[in-house]
Design brief:
By secondary structure, the chain is of the alpha/beta class. The protein has 15 helices and 6 strands. Helix 3 crosses helix 6 and helix 8 crosses helix 9. The N terminus and C terminus are likely disordered.
Length: 328
């Protein structure tokens, strides 16, 4: 029987950090959704974004750089603005560069928290919501740095069966050039284990299984809302009704020849098309039917111990594997 990964909170870590924050003005918790790519982070983003009080922008990617710049004594506000606007994803947010600069001019003294809040507050105002968060999967490697800069940050690590992640990543590979399965398994294992190591230094960290989010969305979202101190609202279950509209922010080409692969707006939208439909468990355990037995064995050879630790059954535990041709 599969063991469900429970929702859990990391208690306040070091007493010194708690004392340091007593004097800070309390702010509403800001959820940061992280995880390995293709683990359902966009799904959770749209669910939270459907809450009347919460908005989650498209992936930012420039937050660590803004933190680094804001800590430098000679940093200018224009340089901080450029850290955001020079990023290929800036156009996703629909914000005015000049207005962001005006907001940063009002941040005195200039520090990482004030700089980040200027951006997120501006986006939340555009969406007409009082609270904001973030969904950038790769921030799982920068969680301690972000929390030190932004005390209200609370990290939600969404975890999905790595074998299904491998299938989903292969479907989205540019030019059909999917990496070797052993490489995918190693990266999945390493990133999750690294995030768990980082979690020891965090005041607020929550692990959620993708399979629970789609299988029991009501119960799982209630646990998430408790974690971020957000009143539960059934509107989150109807996220798919406005998902297509929210995803239009991504309907633009991303990247350039000198900044990595170009992904067209159509490709970006197609990669998240499933999130515009009601939640379904059909994509849970796809590996049983769609992954060749040899590929399953290879993934489990590299990451089987973590799969078991997370409560996922290995192929040997569910009898003969019904997947395709061994030689595929």
């Amino acid at each position: 029987m599969s063991r469900a990964l429970p929702l859990w909170k990391r208690p306040l870590a070091a007493a010194s950090r708690a004392r340091r924050r007593i004097s800070e003005e309390p702010r509403a918790p800001a959820p940061f959704v992280v995880g390995v790519n293709r683990s359902g982070t966009t799904l959770l983003r749209l669910m939270l974004d459907s809450h009347p009080e919460m908005t989650i922008p498209p992936e930012t990617h420039f937050v660590p750089e803004m933190i680094r710049l804001a800590r430098r004594d000679n940093t200018t506000r224009k340089r901080l603005v450029r850290a955001a606007t020079d990023h290929p994803r800036w156009g996703d947010f629909g914000l005015d560069e000049g207005v962001l600069l005006e907001r940063l001019q009002a941040v005195k003294p200039l520090d990482p928290a004030g700089a980040l809040r200027a951006f997120y507050d501006l986006y939340a105002e555009k969406e007409g919501k009082p609270r904001w968060g973030d969904k950038t999967p790769r921030y799982m490697r920068a969680m301690p740095r972000i929390e030190r800069a932004l005390p209200e940050a609370r990290f939600i690590h969404l975890i999905r069966d790595g074998r299904d992640v491998a299938l989903s990543q292969a479907e989205r590979a540019l030019d059909g050039e999917a990496p070797e399965l052993a490489e995918v398994a190693e990266r999945w294992r390493r990133r999750i284990e690294t995030a768990r190591v980082h979690s020891a230094d965090l005041d607020h960290y929550l692990e959620v299984r993708y399979e629970d989010l789609v299988g029991t969305p009501d119960r799982t979202l209630r646990g998430i809302c408790d974690f971020i101190e957000l009143p539960y609202d059934d509107a989150m279950l109807s996220y798919h009704e406005r998902a297509a509209e929210r995803l239009t922010e991504m309907d633009r080409d991303l990247g350039s020849p000198d900044k990595g692969p170009v992904r067209t707006g159509d490709e970006r939208l197609a990669g998240h098309a499933m999130t515009a439909e009601p939640p379904t468990t059909d994509r849970c355990g796809r590996w049983r039917e769609e992954m060749a037995a040899a590929d399953v064995a290879e993934f489990e050879r590299v990451a089987g111990s973590l799969l078991e630790d997370l409560g996922y059954e290995l192929s040997a535990s569910v009898g003969s594997h019904p997947g395709g041709d061994e030689s595929r």
